[in-house]
Write a structure and sequence with these properties.
The complex is a heterodimer.
Chain A: H1 9-60, E1 83-90, E2 94-100, E3 116-119, E4 123-131, E5 135-142, H2 143-192, H3 211-259, H4 265-291, E6 297-301, H5 302-309, E7 315-317, E8 323-327, H6 328-344, E9 349-356, E10 359-364, H7 371-382, H8 391-403, E11 407-409, E12 417-422
Chain B: E1 2-6, H1 10-22, E2 26-30, H2 33-37, E3 46-50, E4 52-53, E5 56-57, H3 58-67, E6 74-78, H4 83-91, E7 96-99, H5 104-119, E8 125-128, E9 131-134, E10 139-142, E11 145-147, H6 151-161, E12 168-169, H7 170-178, H8 188-200, E13 205-208, E14 212-215
Classes of the chains: A alpha+beta, B alpha/beta.
């Protein structure tokens, strides 16, 4: 099952910003609503009050009942904003509208004379007396109009907040990208870095928050370099410890072959062959161990490798095109092991070919293996487990191919045994 | 050839000494640099030096020898096979570099190559008038007829061949032919030189009175 990619800092920050922006807009709108509600109410009441004071003078001159409408109406200055009524409150006939603006209702805004602010179903009314307590001026505004004014104010505030928030979003997005860039640069630096060269310092951290990361990487690099150094020293010791006795065995066998009777010579020769095979395996192991840290791929001609391997008893058929990109020492070690396998399986001829880009196919004319055995070996290689029966050789060859970013494939063939070294295309070392 | 082998591994040292001895070389084998000090001033045709020794670096020892003007051909025998190591070895004065494990046959072949270089000719055969000497086959012919030499006669001839035009003192010749700490009769060299002259002609080996011996000019 394919693992999900880890969450992105940028995506998470963007999401958090969006969520906070939405909450911010709602909060601002609510605050504006609450604040503006009272303030606008107060402002509108002040307007009613001011309008009432303004109308009071002109409307005080209105004649008695029955003469309404003859006075010059002052409503032009406040039409559309609010309505007004001049109401006479008579003991005998009740409240009677003496004069009114066009928007005012036909019935008195207040049935009983009273001053100050009051609310009816549809109106907000402010009343002040005009004369002798009988005649009152009522200035009123509909609740709907007041709500509309309130809504317009709140909406304007909310829209302004939204616009500012959106602009802030764009700016913050750009800022996030900008602030994440040092991380990207750090990743690129690390990707290009040489683990064997702790001197290739990262340079000063571009952000304070990256300083611990820089310190951790520097410490990790130092430890890695130390470990590589130790491993290299170990390889040197291992090489000395393994190679010298092998050379001693070979020298002693060479002397024994000269000094021993003819009847013993074939046996000694077999011992010497086995010792040389051991030498090849050791060489491959050491080369692999040493190269695990740094591969040195180069353009090379396969034909140049064959004489270096000093394999006896095999004839080679080489293709016209023989150029590969690989670590020469590792490829030589891999071929040594493959050829050694071929020899042990009775091969006399090796056919080399390059069936694909950076793929080397080694096909021998030995006894080969059965289809079931071939599949078992291939599965064992795929699982990186002991190839039991296939020998250490195939596992080593596979490890070498993997060190190159590829793998060892064992294709089905009609005769003999074939192995394909898939070496991922790597750039030759500069 | 008289060889100084410096190798701390008993099995390898003994194997190489015996293998090279069968090839007709005289091998002084030292396991440590301390033992090598006892051979100070001894003449050798070639040095076989292990890099890592129990009491120091064979490479440093060789470098010191080169600094003192010693030009004896030297082969490094080492398990260190990295390119950097090979370059370091050759730059420190080694004439050749052999990575362990190696076949002793290859070492013998490289020694033959060294002897050809010392003798100043790519050809393994040298001619001195009617006398033809094959360094690889260890064979001598006079007027086309094979002449058998004893191992010591051959050793004297080879020591002189490897020092063309140079006078080799009687003492050096004794040590080159017999090896370190050997007891010879005081006139042994004269006896073997006389035998050589008898077999190859009087002009083959020239006596420089009071100094030593020199080979006649060859082709």
């Amino acid at each position: 099952m394919k693992a999900l990619p880890p969450p992105s800092i940028r995506a998470r920050l963007t999401l958090a910003l969006l969520a906070s922006s939405v909450l911010w807009i709602i909060a601002v709108a609510a605050a504006v609503w609450l604040t503006v509600h009272d303030e606008v109410d107060e402002l509108l009441d002040d307007t009613l009050l001011a309008a009432a004071e303004g109308l009071r003078g002109p409307l005080s001159q209105l004649p008695a009942i029955g003469m309404a409408g003859s006075a010059e109406s002052p409503e032009t200055s406040a039409s559309g904003r609010f309505a007004w009524q001049v109401v006479d409150h008579l003991a005998e006939s009740g409240a009677q509208v003496v004069a009114a603006s066009a928007l005012a209702p036909a019935v008195p805004l207040r049935p009983v004379a009273s001053g100050g602010f009051s609310d009816s179903d549809a109106w907000r009314v402010f009343g002040i007396p005009l004369t002798d307590g009988r005649r009152w001026l009522y200035v009123a505004q509909t609740h709907a109009e007041r709500q509309e004014a309130l809504a317009e104010t709140a909406l304007s505030a909310a829209l302004a907040t939204l616009a500012i928030t959106l602009l802030a979003q764009v700016w913050l997005q750009a800022q996030i990208r900008h602030e994440l860039r040092p991380l990207q640069r750090l990743a690129e630096h690390l990707a290009d870095g040489d683990p064997e060269d702790p001197g290739a310092a990262l340079g000063p951290a571009e952000r304070r928050e990256l300083q611990p990361v820089h310190r951790a990487i520097a410490e990790l690099t130092r430890r890695l370099a130390l470990r590589l150094e130790r491993e290299r020293a170990f390889t040197g010791h291992a090489a000395h410890s393994l190679r010298t006795p092998l050379a001693g065995i070979d020298a002693q066998l060479a002397v024994a072959l000269r000094e021993s009777p003819a009847s013993l010579q074939p046996r000694l020769q077999r011992v010497r062959t086995a010792a040389r095979r051991l030498h090849r395996v050791v060489s491959a192991l050491l080369a692999l161990f040493r190269s695990s840290a740094a591969l040195h791929p180069q353009e090379l001609d396969v034909a140049d490798l064959i004489p270096r391997l000093a394999i006896e008893g095999l004839a080679f058929e080489l293709p016209d095109h023989r150029m590969l990109t690989a670590d020469a020492d590792l490829l030589a070690a891999a071929l040594l092991n493959l050829f050694d396998n071929s020899l042990r399986h009775g091969a006399t001829t090796i056919h080399l070919s390059l069936p694909g880009s950076n793929i080397l196919r080694v096909h021998d004319n030995g006894t080969g293996v059965s289809e079931g055995e071939r599949e078992r070996l291939q599965n064992a290689l795929r699982g990186q487990v002991d190839t039991a029966g296939g020998g250490l050789g195939l596992l080593l060859v596979d490890l070498i191919a993997r060190a190159h970013g590829g793998s060892l494939q064992l294709p089905a063939v009609e005769h003999g045994f074939a192995a394909e070294l898939h070496l991922a295309a790597r750039q030759p070392a500069a | 050839m008289r060889l100084l082998l410096i190798e701390d591994d008993d099995i390898l040292g003994e194997g190489l000494r015996d293998f090279l001895a069968v090839d007709g070389h005289r091998v002084d084998w030292c396991r440590t640099l301390q033992q090598v000090a006892a051979h100070q001033g001894e003449p050798y045709d070639a040095l076989l030096v292990d890099w890592q020794l129990p009491d120091g670096s064979g490479l440093d020892w060789l470098r010191g020898r080169r600094r003192r003007g010693d030009a004896t051909p030297a082969l490094m025998l080492t398990a260190r096979d990295l390119l950097d190591d090979r370059i370091r070895g050759l730059d420190s004065g080694a004439d050749d570099y052999l990575v362990k494990p190696f076949a002793p046959e290859e070492l013998a072949a490289r020694l033959r190559a060294v002897s050809r270089r010392i003798a100043g000719s790519a050809d393994t055969r040298r001619r001195f008038g009617e006398v033809e000497v094959d360094l690889v086959a260890r064979a001598v012919r006079v007027s086309g007829q094979r002449v058998e030499l004893t191992s010591r006669e051959w050793a004297i001839l080879e020591a002189l061949l490897l020092r063309p035009g140079r006078i080799v003192s009687k003492a050096d010749l004794e040590r080159l032919v017999l090896g370190f700490a050997a007891e010879w009769a005081s006139n042994a060299v004269e006896v073997h030189v006389a035998a050589l002259r008898r077999k190859l002609g009087r002009a083959m080996v020239e006596t420089v009175r009071g100094i030593g011996y020199r080979l006649a000019s060859g082709q």
